[in-house]
Inverse folding.
């Protein structure tokens, strides 16, 4: 196997593992192509730590005398220290980790090798597909159709093969529209609000450019969306200034003249690098071990993470308000339509649609709106907060979504069918996983690498009976009502369960919550038996 | 069609403002209020309440000898206020006869409970004179020769809260007296120390004359006495005031010996003295005759806990009020919160108490004092006891803790709160007790299953800290309470609480008697108590009870129903099964299995 050339030392004895929440332990360390395995060889204990190399975000090595220490900082924010005897062994191990943890080739990643005994590759992959989604929503069929114009991923490489569009827009028109939208992401339906028939559409920015190009078909499509009703809204996730500037580089926005029935609302959302830097600052503040914590709140504020949470929730609230309260259809886009667009569309659906709030419903929503809709997981999640590598396309948009969902969950503890544990699991899996779900950047890439055929599906795994229990909310009480989050800064909190997860302080709270959970489950069972 | 609001607003959650039908608005104001026994109408008036959240609201205000009540008329939303007069710290006239502008003439009321109220009145004919004078009189009865409302009302409850704390019983529960500690009645006439209770626990070896000599060397005669003893290791928490060292560095052999006797009682290697103050303040106290224990106390070690004094705490809470009322400082919320230092003070109090608890649970006796030993000392000893002794984490135990460490040991509630007193600017005011309750709340957040009581109890305690409806928090010390016959003439707050206990119970409580709770006193894990400090803001979701708690209680109710049904089934079963009594195997296995399951799963509820 080609991994072996990166492994000079595969086994070291007498390694000491130090980690918060555990006493130090001595044992054997092994490096394999995908894992770091530490097994405790002491009397009476058999602790094993199996760490996906992919989970390692950064390593630091310190050599002193004949031994060395490697500090491993993981993408799930865990920090481990390994004291390794022998300088050369230490350097070898460090080098192996450095190389193997950031191999670029997707087909060599662990999901392609993961073969658990309890599942076969023949198991169903995924929960839903655009086809299934469309066929379930019969109310749609009057005015909307399922287009397979993208079946070869030629019109829009980051869209799934089938998408839902207005009925009277044919495939030829879609092809033209795709040329008018960045990366071919023409407006498609993401959500249909059963209560009033209004919809959420998403797309990328129109390529109007400096000379204000127009596209009749694009205007026609949007007109078809609102068909009959007086107007629709476009929520642009950039400030109007940013939208204006985008024209210089060929992008732009929907002008009044071309889209007279559409009203544009600009809400500036932070994306890309700014978001990544925010996460780095936050994690740094959380990991600050110095005793001088007087400035904690300022540091938290300076990281701006919570204000990103606030903006995301309030923009999603605005979107849901347009649809649910005012009864208008909305088109959402920023520039590429693969990040903040998905973020607020997903959150708005959680706010409005009870079907998305069950465990299955939520996972299906993520599959539809993030995996199939082409959020570039590969690029966004290749590194996290500890990495020293130069920032490229990394951005914790998906983590921000999970944080926002956690805020919803905290404000409405009965309305969501899943638990915090699910959000924590997803936050880990998005960065390093045994499963193929979050591999690649879009369906086309997944198709080329035959991800479906060669890896397991995380969402299916989470729904297996045994896992499912831990991920569902025992207090869940379905409600048809919209759940409007409070977005005032004093209502939003740091997601301690994630950001302070590996501190001893968070542990006892986790235990107490587990205890409450069990109490509820027990009494629930008895009360309902 | 109206376009959607440009700023997403989440005001849909207003609950204290509810829409109502027109008919109810016509109802007479008095009919809305259920007056307490002894409560009487003083005056009512048409007025405009200048609500910081909804703007000016027309309505009628009713003032009784207990409360200020306001209800809006002719508005689509009903705005209601029900404020005990005891919560008022200041009443002022706003504007003059000549002031212009709408609603610029009226009353400005500052409350002790994190809010202000403004009422506008008609400008003509001195319309506010009578209401101002009457409100001023009844809000500050002690400044006008009137009794506090607790002496007026005679509400009856099924429980007598004055029975909750009996010092001797509490000492007995702790295993006292024993061969090292004795109970003394030396203070039965408050002659040794007029701010201490009558019953004290002191080292067995110390004679009454020793105590008197020590009292001469401790500020206000507040000698070191036992607050709590660890059952297993016999380490104790002893509390007192500062030694009267003064500039000249006076020594007192009796005090030194006394402290050594305390240390000896469980063979601690050192007696740790926790001085709650910052060291600079302790030094500065020498100038006024006070100070701290120096090197002459050879068997003791001194630790300063850096907790600021009552004035700093008062200013800090004032700053907090500025950023949360009426509007929350949203643009730089976290740094504004930080600049109030409130959470930092909470952190220092909690971490001080953790140090005390940790020392004691590792077998070392400690002595806690500040200057007078009735503010920071009470915070530290009571919080440490809450961490060490699970009894204090029960509903009744918590009442005992407050009665004992705060009320009986002379936390100056009257001076700190200013019950019935018009001097709002008095330098003695300070939210030390509020801060203690905040610390308790932080602990309940960190240990959601360790406390038998819920957040509502804490809110109720703080509401009645000001209300003057109960005698519990009145006066500065026991001797003053005796003199004013508080126990005879007023009702205890615990009478109210204990006659409606189920309201204050935490359904998730699971007792673990031996466990010492060490909360995390790190800023990362402390939260602002939003549901207390920002509760007047309608944007804060008002949750009397968390929905999780609510749902769980529903499940428990279902269980009770199920149990009852089961019982009925068993009853109706009992006749045939008694006939089958000859075959006990079958009857016992069929009818007793389900109840056994319950005993197995029994929680303390």
């Amino acid at each position: 196997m080609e991994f072996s050339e990166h492994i000079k030392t595969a086994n070291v004895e007498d390694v000491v593992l130090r980690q918060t929440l555990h006493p130090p332990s001595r044992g054997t360390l092994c490096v394999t192509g995908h894992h770091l395995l530490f097994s405790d060889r002491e009397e009476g204990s058999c602790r094993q730590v199996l760490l996906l190399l992919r989970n390692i975000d950064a390593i630091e090595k310190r050599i002193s005398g004949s031994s060395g220490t490697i500090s491993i900082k993981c993408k799930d924010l865990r920090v481990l220290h390994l004291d390794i005897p022998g300088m050369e062994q230490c350097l070898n191990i460090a080098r192996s980790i450095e190389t193997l943890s950031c191999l670029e080739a997707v087909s060599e990643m662990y999901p392609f090798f993961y073969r658990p005994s309890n599942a076969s590759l023949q198991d169903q992959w995924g929960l839903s597909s655009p086809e299934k989604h469309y066929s379930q929503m019969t109310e749609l069929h009057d005015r909307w159709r399922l287009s397979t114009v993208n079946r070869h991923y030629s019109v829009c490489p980051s869209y799934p093969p089938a998408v839902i569009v207005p009925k009277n827009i044919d495939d030829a028109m879609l092809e033209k529209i795709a040329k008018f939208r960045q990366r071919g992401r023409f407006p498609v339906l993401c959500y249909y609000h059963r209560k009033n028939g209004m919809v959420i559409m998403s797309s990328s920015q129109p390529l109007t450019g400096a000379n204000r190009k127009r596209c009749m078909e694009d205007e026609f499509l949007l007109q078809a969306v609102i068909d009959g009703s007086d107007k629709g809204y476009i929520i642009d996730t950039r400030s109007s200034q940013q939208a204006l500037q985008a024209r210089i580089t060929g992008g732009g926005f929907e002008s009044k003249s071309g889209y007279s029935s559409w009203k544009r609302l600009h809400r500036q959302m932070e994306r890309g690098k700014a978001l990544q830097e925010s996460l780095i600052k936050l994690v740094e503040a959380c990991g600050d071990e110095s005793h001088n914590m007087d400035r904690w709140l300022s540091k938290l504020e300076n990281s701006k993470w919570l204000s990103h949470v606030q903006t995301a929730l309030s923009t999603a609230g605005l979107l849901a308000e347009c649809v649910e309260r005012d009864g208008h259809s909305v088109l959402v886009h920023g520039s590429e339509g693969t990040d903040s667009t998905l973020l607020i569309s997903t959150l708005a659906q959680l706010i409005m649609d009870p079907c998305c709030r069950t465990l299955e419903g939520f996972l299906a929503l993520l599959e539809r709106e993030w995996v199939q809709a082409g959020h570039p997981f590969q690029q966004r999640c290749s590194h996290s907060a500890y990495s020293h590598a130069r920032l490229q396309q990394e951005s914790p948009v998906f983590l921000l979504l999970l944080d926002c969902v956690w805020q919803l969950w905290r404000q409405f503890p009965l309305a969501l069918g899943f638990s915090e544990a699910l959000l924590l699991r997803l936050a880990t899996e998005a960065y390093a996983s045994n499963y193929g779900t979050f591999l690649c950047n879009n369906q086309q890439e997944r198709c080329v690498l035959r991800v479906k055929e060669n890896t397991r599906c995380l969402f299916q795994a989470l729904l297996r009976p045994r896992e499912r229990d831990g991920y569902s909310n025992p207090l869940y009480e379905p409600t048809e009502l919209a759940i409007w989050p409070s977005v005032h800064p004093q209502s939003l909190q740091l997601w301690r369960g994630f950001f302070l997860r590996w501190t001893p302080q968070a542990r006892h709270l986790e235990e107490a919550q587990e205890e409450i959970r069990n109490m509820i489950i027990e009494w629930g069972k008895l009360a309902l038996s | 069609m109206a376009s959607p609001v440009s700023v997403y607003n989440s005001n849909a959650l207003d609950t204290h403002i509810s829409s109502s039908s027109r008919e109810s608005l016509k109802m007479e104001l008095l009919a809305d209020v259920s007056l307490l026994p002894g409560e009487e109408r003083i005056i009512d008036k048409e007025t405009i309440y200048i609500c910081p959240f909804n703007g000016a609201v027309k309505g009628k205000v009713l003032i009784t000898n207990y409360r200020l009540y306001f209800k809006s008329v002719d508005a689509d939303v009903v705005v209601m206020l029900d404020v005990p007069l005891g919560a008022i710290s200041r009443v002022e006239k706003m504007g003059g006869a000549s002031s212009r502008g709408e609603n610029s003439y009226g009353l400005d009321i500052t409350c002790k409970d994190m809010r202000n109220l403004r009422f506008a009145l008609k400008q003509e004919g001195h319309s506010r004179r009578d209401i101002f004078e009457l409100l001023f009189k009844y809000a500050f009865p002690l400044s006008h020769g009137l009794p506090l409302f607790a002496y007026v009302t005679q509400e009856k409850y099924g429980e007598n809260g004055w029975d909750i704390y009996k010092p001797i019983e509490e000492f007995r529960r702790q295993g006292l007296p024993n061969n090292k500690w004795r109970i003394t009645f030396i203070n039965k006439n408050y002659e040794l120390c007029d701010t201490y209770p009558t019953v004290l626990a002191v080292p067995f070896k110390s004679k009454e004359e020793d105590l008197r000599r020590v009292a001469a060397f401790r500020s206000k005669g507040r000698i070191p006495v036992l607050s709590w003893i660890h059952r297993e290791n016999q380490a104790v928490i002893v509390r007192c005031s500062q030694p009267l060292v003064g500039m000249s560095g006076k020594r007192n052999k009796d005090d030194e010996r006394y402290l050594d006797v305390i240390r000896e009682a469980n063979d601690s290697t050192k007696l740790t003295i926790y001085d709650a103050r910052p060291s600079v303040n302790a030094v500065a106290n020498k100038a006024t005759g006070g100070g701290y224990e120096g090197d002459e106390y050879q068997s003791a070690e001194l630790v300063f806990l850096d907790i600021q004094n009552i004035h700093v705490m008062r200013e800090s809470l004032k700053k907090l009020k500025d950023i949360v009322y009426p509007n929350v400082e949203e643009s730089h919320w976290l740094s504004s919160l930080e600049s109030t230092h409130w959470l930092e003070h909470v952190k220092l109090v909690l971490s001080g108490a953790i140090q005390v608890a940790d020392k004691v649970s590792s077998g070392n006796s400690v002595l806690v004092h500040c200057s007078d030993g009735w503010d920071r000392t009470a915070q530290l000893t009571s919080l440490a006891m809450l961490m060490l002794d699970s009894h204090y984490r029960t509903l009744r135990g918590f009442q005992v803790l407050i009665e004992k460490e705060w009320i009986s040991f002379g936390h100056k509630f009257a001076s700190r709160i200013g019950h019935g007193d018009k001097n709002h600017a008095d330098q003695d005011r300070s939210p030390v007790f509020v801060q203690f309750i905040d610390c308790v709340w932080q602990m309940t957040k960190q240990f959601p299953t360790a406390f038998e009581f819920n957040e509502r109890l804490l809110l109720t305690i703080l509401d009645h800290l000001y209300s003057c409806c109960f005698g519990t928090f009145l006066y500065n010390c026991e001797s003053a309470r005796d003199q004013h016959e508080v126990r005879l003439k007023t009702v205890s707050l615990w009478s109210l609480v204990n006659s409606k206990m189920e309201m204050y119970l935490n359904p998730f409580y699971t007792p673990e008697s031996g466990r010492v709770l060490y909360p995390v006193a790190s800023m990362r894990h402390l939260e602002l108590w939003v549901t207390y400090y920002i509760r007047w803001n309608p944007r804060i979701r008002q949750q009397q009870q968390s929905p999780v708690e609510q749902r769980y209680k529903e499940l428990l109710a279902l269980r009770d129903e199920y149990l009852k049904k089961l019982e009925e089934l068993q009853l109706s079963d009992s006749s045939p099964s008694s006939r089958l009594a000859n075959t006990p195997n079958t009857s016992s296995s069929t009818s007793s299995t389900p109840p056994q399951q319950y005993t197995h799963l029994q929680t303390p509820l």
Remarks:
- Chain B touches chain A through 55 residues (CB under 8 Å).
- Residues 167-548 of chain B form one domain.
- Chain B is about 40% helix and 15% strand.
- Residues 547-579 of chain B form the longest helix (33 residues).
